[in-house]
Amino acid sequence: MFTEEKKNSQIFQDSNHLLPKSELEVSNIIKEAYKKKFPIDIHGANTKKFIGYNVQAAKSLDLSSINGIIEYLPEELYIKVKPGTLMEDVESALEKNNQELSFEPTDFGYIDNGISNKGTVGGCVACNFAGSRRFKSGSVRDFVLGFRGVNGKGDIIKSGGTVVKNVTGYDLSKLVSGSFGTLVALTEITLKISAKKPSQNTIVIYENDPKVISDLFQKVLSSSNEISGAVFIPDEPQNKKFDLNKSKAFKFNDLDQEGSFFALRVEGDKNSIKERIKDISNELDLKKFKTSNLDPHQSPLFWKSVNSLQLFSETKNNLLRAVVPPANCEKVMKDLKNKFKYFIDWSGSLFWIEVAGKDDDKLKEIKKMILQNNGYLTIIKKSEDFDFSEKIFTIDDTKLMISKKIKESFDPKGIFNPGKMYKDF
Amino acid sequence: MSEIALPKVDRVTVSKKDIIVSSLKNFTSSENVLSELDEIKPYETDALAAYKNLPLAVVLPENTKEVSEILKYCHQENIKVIPRGAGTGLSGGALPLNDAIILGLGKFNKILDIDFDNKCVVTQPGVTNLSITHAVKHKGYYYAPDPSSQLACSIGGNVAENSGGVHSLKYGTTTNNILGVEMVMMDGTICKLGGKTLDQEGYDLLGLICGSEGLLGVITEITVKILKNPQTVKAALIGFPTIEDGGNCVTDIISNGIVPAGMEIMDKALIDATEKFVHAGYPMDAEVLMIVELDGTKSEVDELFKKIKEIAEKNKSNSFKLSKSEKERLGFWSGRKAAFPACGAMAPDYYCMDGTIPRGKLSVILKEISRLSKKYNLAVANGFHAGDGNLHPLILFDGSDKEQLRRTEEFGAEILKACVRMGGALSGEHGIGIEKRELMCEAFNDIDIQQQLNIKKCLDEKNLLNPGKVYPILRKCAEEGRVHVHRGEEKFPDLPRF
């Protein structure tokens, strides 16, 4: 026991970049950190490192070497993986069985350095950012069936399992999803997987009027045609402050008109797609608009571009993510006007907004407007020379108080990613 | 049923009953405070009726402020509180304690806001699950989770137990279908979690509360998502000659990328029982009967049923009947939905179990249940939400026979242990309550449970809210390790153990 402890202590002291290979090593490292009350920066592939406050920790706990698929049972609709497994590897394994992760993980690679990088499964769960299918299928947290991980004392804990229906104790999978590595160092994650639809088409509607766009989103949400994606991509402001990426990010043969556009996705077998499109044409009164149709080859690439935020590729500006109730979409659009570069996803609920400059007031103004619209706002990426006075995540005092206690229950000495989400803990 | 260990009764609280009752009347109208035996007797049990216990008093507040004041008072005075919805829970989650007050949410029975633009309904917790659908169906919407008790069970109880139902295979359980709650913590603090937006920022406290069985807070308002009715819904009845064939067919349907809206399996005993009870027209030559329901566009539903028929034939199905009308579809379900009363007609009592297994283990668990049925000499009928591996064996017994009672409990516990061994869970949708509390150690070790208890402390530091539920109190999978309890005499009886 003594030699083991000595060894752990040695590993911990020797390096600032700790790269464990197993759950046990993670546990031993954390036990050491707990003993010494030494803050550590927990991460995977670092593809979302810019989200949140900078962590003040001399040592980093890199989980990327704990990787690999532990168990993949297509017929049971789950995959159990280690946290450092690349999202790409999971998706290609699922693809072989015509399966997928229905929540469409957001790819933050482009906004960082212009190259696709979905990072690791651990990172994806820790950040809980779902893509365009969210309003129909759910968020990342809805697909985490269970996990194993190490808490801030070095204890190995687990919750949930591999089955969808499970009411055995508190659902810690939900708490861990979106906790940005502040509660648990994940060591094993079980995700629910879904059958991939055989085909898809995207209808593009060329339109710019906020009222009309908002109505279209409403009709999508009221449709029984299982529309699985609805976005609005407005024209970019002709302003030196913003890069013009739209025509490059959405370059498709059949996206052949200039200007702002609305797009919706229909998935299924070919006959059902045909049937649905016919019905949607009536529901949305499509004959009133200029439209085009992205075929099953162009459609997946279009949504890939949406979900990898290519509109903001390599941006040096600030990037905000705001979520509002869908009925408030029009109000938010009218407020943003053409002053900012933005697009709308989740059929009117999710706004990605790029804000140029160092002016804190502008950001405060947007945040105030989002809160007035009963939404919340996250600062995803900060421009390098901008020192925000605004909080990165939106939270009220009561929830902050509960969150602080929850944090302490997992990590009593506050050693996991201290200050990452909130300045106080 | 048999004796169940409950937290030590606080005699001081019991002795102060009169003061407590009169104090409670300061926070709500006096007719909302019940303390006479004939008034509190109806609250002595929930739908796990074998366990009964009288509360100190019952209070039925009418608004959030009253709930907050009552909880604040109880927190200050160290009085235990058991929240209660419609009392339809099957795991004893609302079982009273002699030194606790029941906080009934029955007067929270109004739908507050039907917001078609945001596709949600804001409701009080005492509203029944089905009333939400009734309130929105005129515009073609519905609320997806549909526990079998939906006519009576409250939406607040659904949140507490993360209820599922027949359609959770495609549409998820409660946790996937709520957007926000208003909750009162044990110290009286009111908090709002989520709202009308998708997801919430920061720790997913809404996800934590859902399925927490009334241990973390009292829910006073819920925002649920509503969905548009599907265009076409059809169901098929498929019979199989053996359990294996039926089980394999379930797996094959899923493996072929088909996600039915619902997929149920009934064994021979349940087919016979329900057919006698409601005459649903089930094939009597089948050992196993499957009900598959699909929804979507007409062509999609027809196409997928063709595929399902092929898959069923490959698995030796001996009958296949597709619903031709809405009336016929509902007829197919009438038998399955009458499973409980049908079993009730077959024996003086039945005990409904609830466990989950990986779908592929369906025939294995059915064989194990059949072996146990012989071992304990008790009849059992099996109904499964096969699509998501959720099984509900109904053990038939005579509650007046103590020996049968004991065997029934052991039989049930063995089924659940087998579920955990096969990689499943102790409960799919009924919750742990008092019923499966001691079995938690089968699924979790001391450290896992301690982490959960630490979370409980964050929201209820004095352990006053629904104590004695969910977490073991006999085996103590807690920090201090397992404690051997001899004849109920435990060491440090005053030490709080959550």
Can you offer a commentary on this structure?
The complex is a heterodimer of chains A (425) and B (498). Chain A has two domains: 1-196 and 397-425, Uridine Diphospho-n-acetylenolpyruvylglucosamine Reductase, domain 3, CATH 3.30.465.10; 199-381, Vanillyl-alcohol Oxidase, Chain A, domain 3, CATH 3.40.462.40. A five-stranded antiparallel β-sheet of chain A has the order 4-5-9-7-8. In chain A, strands 12-13-11-14 form a four-stranded antiparallel β-sheet, with helices on both faces. Chain A has a four-stranded antiparallel β-sheet with strand order 16-17-15-18, with helices on one face. Chain A has helices at residues 2-14, 23-36, 87-95, 109-113, 121-127, 134-137, 172-176, 210-222, 246-249, 270-283, 298-307, 329-336, 360-372, 397-410, and strands spanning 17-18, 40-43, 59-62, 69-73, 78-81, 99-100, 144-150, 156-160, 185-192, 194-195, 199-206, 229-233, 261-268, 290-294, 318-323, 341-345, 350-355, 376-381. With 425 residues, chain A is of the alpha+beta class. In chain A, α1 crosses α2 and α8 packs antiparallel against α12 (329-336). The radius of gyration of chain A is 22 Å and the shape is globular. Chain B is an alpha+beta fold and 498 residues long. Among the domains of chain B are: 11-104, Uridine Diphospho-n-acetylenolpyruvylglucosamine Reductase, domain 2, CATH 3.30.43; 111-228, Uridine Diphospho-n-acetylenolpyruvylglucosamine Reductase, domain 3, CATH 3.30.465.10; 232-338, Alpha-Beta Plaits. In chain B, the strands form four sheets. In chain B, strands 12, 13, 14, 15, 16, 17, 18 and 19 form an eight-stranded antiparallel β-sheet that branches. Chain B starts with 10 loop residues before the first helix and ends in a 39-residue tail after the last helix. Residues 477-498 of chain B have low confidence and may be disordered. At the A-B interface, β8, α7, β10, α8 and α10 of A face β9, α8, α9, α11 and α17 of B.
